[in-house]
Amino acid sequence: MPDTLTTINPATNEELETYSLMSEGDAKSVVEACHEAFLDWRFRPVEERAEIIRAIGKELRASKEEFAQLMTDEVGKLIGHSRDEIELCAAICDYTADNGAAELADEEREIQGGKGVIAYSPIGVIYGIQPWNFPCYQAVRYSIVNLMAGNGVLLKHAENCTGSGLMLRDVMERAGLPKNLFSVLLISHDVSDEIIAHKLVRGVTMTGSDGAGRKIGAKAAENLKKTVLELGSNDAYMVLDDADLETAVQCSVAGRLYNNGQTCVAAKRFVVTEKHYDAFLERFVEAMSAVELGDPNESSTGLGPMARNDLRDKLAKQVEESVEKGAKIACGGSVPDRTGAYYPATVLVDVAPGQPAYDDELFGPAASVIRAKDDEDAMRIANDSRYGLGGGIFCKDEKRARELATKYFDTGMISINGYKIAQPNMPFGGVKDSGYGREHGGFGIKEFVNVKSIYLVD
Question: What span, in angstroms and rounded, lies between the C-alpha atoms of 116 and 119?
Answer without folding.
Answer: 10
